[in-house]
């Protein structure tokens, strides 16, 4: 019998079309193509574009296996090339002909330059915000004390005349009743008003650890999912199913790595080590070995850039994150999650807890196979790197959600494909 309109052949065709329709937007999202204000006339954009279409191509190949349908390879390759050309042409057309990107938002910082120096360099090149002015305490008080037409303060007049969009109140700014009233009036005019730490978080998507105190953690928003049993149960279910699927998909790669590691260097294919999990409970982590045998004969030590202890094959495994695959077993056991802070050794935890503020807060959630710090920052070599990664880890703990987990997963795919791991 011939295939009917609603027969199996029609199902294959429909499934393939749907899969291909999903493949391209998903690949574009992973490689940050939907950031329309991103500059496209540079090598970095072209490299991202190549990665996005390579990923789309892999998705397409997988789709043909799932939904077998006869389609000439030439047709597919031509459509793939035309899509790439049209995407680049559209970005060129959008940027040069329409120039529709929103103007940068003018920012006024209330506080001295020393306090705000952590964000000033970023505002110079940020695509969204632009630093317009900085006012120290003396100037702020003078402008607030001076009344102008309409019963407004000179500060409000300055904000209007310079077309300020956002006001950032630094920690050392004078929070007097008069200043607060002036800021309320500005906010009623549609001006954004931020405490410094909130603006820092929005700008960098991390927390300014050295500027925070216990009261801030007590009174700030966020941290809502920490006590949510439904969220924890759902995340655990996703962890178990996701780890199982990834283990099956990566099995061929794991088998190859398991054979090559002992052939290229003395020792086992696997590496186990005790790490601290949620509540600082110790568990044995499992990874593919990337260092020479007895790499820590002199005791625990920080990893190094171009670490001589790492084998030639180990460098490849680290760069592609293949060495992390066995940790999926830890996820299945419940010691780890797919997404969370990186698990650390007790020796370094004791050091960092003494020297890095709020370091112990990262142990209120399970460690993860990947995480916000892992996709936003490189491997840590020392205490300064540990502090920087903690800024990202606490941002994740404060804002954790399934949506943020999905975003991290997408960025992890890009990190693996582009070899950003070290």
Provide the low-confidence segments as ranges.
1-8
Major β-sheet strand ordering: 2-1-3-4
Task: Quickly give the structural class.
Answer: alpha/beta
Based on CA atoms alone, the radius of gyration comes out at 26 Å
- As a percent range, the share of helical residues equals 40-55%
The number of helices is 18
For the sheet with most strands, the description reads: 4 strands, parallel
- Total strands: 8
Straight-line distance between termini: 57 Å
What general form does the structure show? globular
Written as H for each helix and E for each strand, in order along the chain, the element string is HHHEHHEHHEHEHHHHEEHHEHEHHH
Q: How large a portion of the residues is in β-strands, by DSSP E? A: 5-15%
Mean pLDDT: 83
Question: What keyword list fits this structure?
Answer:
422 residues; two-stranded antiparallel ribbon; 18 helices; 53% helix; four-stranded parallel beta sheet; alpha/beta
Descriptive overview:
The protein has 422 residues and is of the alpha/beta class. The chain has helices spanning 8-30, 43-66, 73-98, 113-116, 120-125, 137-145, 154-161, 177-187, 196-204, 214-219, 229-249, 251-264, 312-319, 327-333, 346-355, 372-376, 383-399, 402-418; strands at residues 105-110, 129-135, 166-169, 192-195, 270-276, 282-288, 337-339, 368-370. Strands 2-1-3-4 form a 4-stranded parallel beta sheet. A two-stranded antiparallel ribbon has the order 5-6. It has a two-stranded parallel sheet with strand order 7-8. α1 (8-30) packs antiparallel against α2, α11 (229-249) runs antiparallel to α14 and α12 (251-264) packs antiparallel against α13. The model is unreliable at 1-8 (pLDDT under 50).
């Amino acid at each position: 019998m011939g295939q009917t309109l609603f027969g199996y052949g029609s199902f294959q065709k429909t499934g393939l079309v749907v899969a291909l329709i999903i493949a391209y937007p998903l690949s574009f999202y992973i490689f940050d193509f939907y950031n329309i204000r991103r500059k496209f006339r540079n090598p970095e954009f072209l490299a991202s574009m190549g990665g996005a279409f390579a990923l789309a191509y892999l998705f397409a190949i997988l789709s043909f296996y799932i939904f077998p349908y006869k389609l000439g390879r030439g047709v597919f390759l031509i459509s793939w090339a035309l899509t790439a050309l049209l995407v680049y042409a559209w970005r060129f057309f959008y940027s040069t002909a329409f120039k529709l990107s929103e103007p940068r938002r003018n920012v006024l910082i209330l506080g001295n330059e020393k306090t705000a120096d952590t964000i000033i360099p970023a505002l110079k090149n940020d695509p969204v915000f632009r630093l317009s002015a900085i006012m120290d305490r003396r100037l702020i008080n003078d402008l607030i004390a001076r009344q102008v037409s309409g019963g407004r303060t000179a500060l409000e007049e300055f904000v209007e005349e310079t077309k300020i969009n956002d006001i950032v109140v630094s920690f050392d700014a004078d929070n007097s009743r008069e200043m607060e009233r002036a800021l309320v009036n500005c906010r009623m005019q549609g001006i954004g008003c931020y405490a410094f730490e909130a603006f820092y978080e929005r700008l960098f998507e991390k927390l300014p650890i050295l500027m925070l105190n216990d009261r801030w953690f007590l009174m700030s928003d966020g941290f809502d999912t920490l006590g949510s049993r439904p969220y924890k149960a759902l995340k655990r279910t996703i962890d178990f199913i996701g780890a199982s699927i990834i283990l099956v998909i990566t099995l061929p790669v794991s088998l190859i790595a398991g054979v090559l590691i002992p052939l290229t260097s003395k020792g086992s294919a696997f590496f186990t080590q005790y790490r601290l999990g949620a509540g600082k409970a110790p568990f044995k982590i499992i990874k593919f070995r990337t260092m020479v045998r007895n790499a820590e004969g002199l005791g625990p030590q920080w990893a190094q850039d171009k670490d001589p202890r790492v084998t030639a094959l180990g460098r490849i495994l680290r760069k592609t994150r293949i060495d992390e695959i066995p940790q999926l077993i830890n996820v299945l056991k419940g010691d780890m999650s797919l997404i969370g802070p990186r698990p650390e050794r007790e020796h370094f935890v004791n050091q960092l807890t003494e020297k890095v503020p709020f370091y112990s807060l990262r142990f209120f959630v399970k460690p993860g196979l990947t995480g916000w710090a892992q996709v936003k920052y490189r491997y840590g070599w020392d205490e300064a790197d540990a502090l920087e990664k903690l800024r990202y880890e606490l941002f994740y703990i404060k804002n954790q959600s399934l949506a943020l987990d999905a975003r991290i997963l997408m960025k992890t795919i890009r990190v693996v494909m582009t070899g950003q791991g070290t």
